[in-house]
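PROTEIN ENTRY
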Amino acid sequence: MSQSSTNRLAAMEIFSAVVEQGSFSAAARACRLTPSAASKAITRLEQRLGTKLIHRSTRQMQLTAEGRWFYERCRHILSDLDEAERGASRTAEPTGHLRVTASLPVGHGFLMPIVSRFLAQYPGITLELSLTDQVVNLLAEHTDVAIRNGPLENSNLVARKLGETRMVIVGAPDYLEQHGMPVTIEKLRAHNRLGFSFSRHTTAWPLMVHGEHTELMPQGNLLVSDGETMRKLAVGGAGLARLTRFLVDDDIRQGRLVPVMEDHNPGDREEIHAVFLGQGRLMLGRVRAFLDFLYENVEINPVR
């Protein structure tokens, strides 16, 4: 490999480190350079490319559109190089740090039971798992895979459907004994209907009345940030909640929650996808391994 090619790869490594570490000083430590040397390397890279990759200020740094595009290519090129070196040394097992985010219900319901098996199967991978119901920007948050509930927005992300689950309105037996079992829309309006405090694609509760679709907004004295918290509050008798069936299945079986308004349930389902950056040859080996493992081991029953 020529000196020029070596320098170009080194610049890619430094640039990728800056993006992934979030600062020049952290990237310099990771690359065993001084912050000044790392900064100069990026400046030379931008001069050679003839474009600005990073907007820098005393408080923060932000990738330009060209920087985001270049970063994605860099990480795939460097990943291919790593895989080539592992293949040459007969150690083709995926390795490296894998960042995954998921909603709390999906994390607790599907990921937690299989994480130990995944890590046992791929000992060279370290997994960083973040559970939040907020939508995470994969590129900005340096995340490899996000497990998302509900409809997906159009984006540059690639999605793999893992399954779908039915929605259900539920309430605790004590709450329903005190406030009554709603059997009509009018009765349902009088109940404390728990809502989410973050922006969702669909906030209204869809219902069927005499064969016609209608909607009822959640309206009550409590907003929560995630589905798991809402489930626990519903079990505690705080009000009615509309949640995915897989999240409340065990509570229903154990009698902690009771399905409500099932005769008016339109049968709508919430899809669950794994979304990620890159596909085919551009997909990182550890990302491919995780997605394949998910597809083979996560079971989401569509009729539940």
About this structure: The chain is about 40% helix and 20% strand. The radius of gyration is 24 Å. The first strand starts at residue 54 and ends at 56.
